[in-house]
Design brief:
59% of the residues lie in helices and 13% in strands. By secondary structure, the chain is of the alpha+beta class. Helix 2 runs antiparallel to helix 3 and helix 3 (121-152) packs parallel to helix 6. Bound molecules: adenosine-5'-diphosphate.
């Protein structure tokens, strides 16, 4: 706007100067008989007014356009920040909610114990066992939150080197009984992080398969696949299962915070890998991690 006003002033002064010059020349030539036709001074004044009006109108239009486009562009630039803040708010809300549940349970049990005048060692032990479970849950949640935070904080969270996915799968399977079909396949990555990723997928396969049978882990062509014949995931939930704290209604009977797949996705993203899910309700699910 300042630039536009500045140039408008220059244009106006230049034009006014030229008109003044024409007026002066005319005044000097007026006595000459047979000179050029005399220009009415009113026309010169009118021309100056018109130039001033045009410049003023141009500046008003520029002001309107720059204000409008500024508002639009600022909105566009701030949109990701606004989204991010909303996500953070939602995240803090969900995390506090998940922490409240075991805390409330801990508090209630301790209160009941303290009020009981005939508190026996057996009753105390029962409460301690239950409290221990709740503390374990809170510890797991805080571990998940710390892990997510670390993974989301940047790219250089772990070193990369050549890793054999077969070795990764063997480490992730551990002592669990699965059907395995593992071929050597080397990718650039971090062995511990990738084992953690595959471990999350195997944990879920066991958790969401009522009988725990037929869980298969395959490694082939820079690809790891974990499949089960469990409860499956409803089609409507599939786009959200990698969101933080998202849990399908069907899986709420099982312990969990809805953070495992978010961590798995973060690890895959940091490796430039994709996670693809195929699932059919009551038939089972297959998670594929594909490296580029
Ligand atoms: P959690 O298992 O703790 O709920 P995750 O982030 O690991 O959290 O998984 C998110 C959701 O995705 C689960 O709640 C469940 O609904 C669904 N899910 C993930 N893996 C499977 C699976 N193998 N079979 C069925 N549902 C699954």
């Amino acid at each position: 706007m300042a630039i536009s006003v500045f140039f408008s002033l220059i244009i106006y002064r230049g034009a006014a100067f030229e008109l003044q010059r024409i007026e002066t020349i005319q005044t000097q030539r007026r006595p000459m008989i047979g000179g050029p036709p005399v220009l009415d001074p009113e026309i010169i004044k009118e021309t100056k007014r018109r130039i001033m009006f045009s410049l003023f109108a141009t500046n008003v239009i520029i002001l309107g356009l720059s204000a409008g486009s500024g508002y639009f562009l600022a909105g566009k630039t701030l949109e990701p920040i606004r989204k991010n803040m909303e996500e953070q708010k939602k995240f803090i809300g969900s995390a506090s909610h998940e922490l409240r549940t075991p805390l409330t349970s801990l508090k209630t049990e301790i209160e009941v114990g303290l009020r009981d005048k005939k508190f026996t060692a057996i009753a105390a032990r029962k409460i301690l066992v239950s409290n221990f479970e709740e503390v374990n849950k809170m510890q797991k949640l805080s571990d998940y939150l710390l892990r997510l935070n670390r993974l989301e904080s940047g790219k250089n969270v772990f070193g990369m080197s050549k890793v054999d996915l077969k070795k990764v799968a063997i480490k992730a399977i551990g002592k669990r009984r699965v059907i395995s079909d593992l071929e050597k396949s080397v990718v650039l990555g971090n062995e511990d992080a990738l084992s953690e990723l595959v471990g999350i997928l195997i944990d879920n396969a066991f958790k969401y398969s009522p009988n725990g049978n037929s869980i298969t882990v395959r490694v082939k062509n820079k690809q790891i696949e974990v499949s089960d014949k469990g409860i499956g995931i409803p089609k409507s939930d599939l786009p959200y299962i990698f969101d933080r704290f998202y849990r399908s209604d069907k899986s709420r009977t099982k312990d969990g915070y809805g953070l495992g797949l978010s961590i798995a996705k973060q690890i895959a993203d940091l490796h430039g890998a994709k996670i693809i899910v195929e699932s059919k309700l009551c038939m089972g699910s297959t998670f594929k991690v594909i490296f580029g």
